[in-house]
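Milestone 3.1: sequence recovery, worked example.
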């Protein structure tokens, strides 16, 4: 019985560790409302602020108000940091 409960606890810990990163990740889609002068912080029309890290290559000329974007992000220190960032083609 003691062995079974130990295995159950280990399984529960493993599930929590696997699911934890998912709780801090997200996807967002919308129109750019504004871009900071450095081109590293984008605010969408719904107020969502996305930080674009230097590791992501995004063409700064495409970062203009009104452009449609799609991004995946992770929460880090209270900020949404993009893990992918795509400017969608105009329709």
């Amino acid at each position: 019985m003691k062995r079974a409960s130990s295995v159950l606890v280990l399984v529960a810990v493993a599930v929590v560790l696997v699911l934890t990163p998912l709780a801090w990740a997200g996807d967002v889609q919308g129109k750019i409302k504004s871009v900071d002068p450095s081109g590293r912080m984008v605010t969408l029309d719904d107020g969502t602020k996305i930080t674009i890290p230097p590791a992501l290559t995004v063409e700064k000329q495409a970062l203009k108000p009104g452009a449609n974007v799609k991004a995946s992000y992770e929460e880090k220190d209270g900020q949404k940091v993009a893990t992918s960032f795509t400017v969608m083609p105009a329709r």
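The first helix runs from residue 2 to 23. Helices lie at 2-23.
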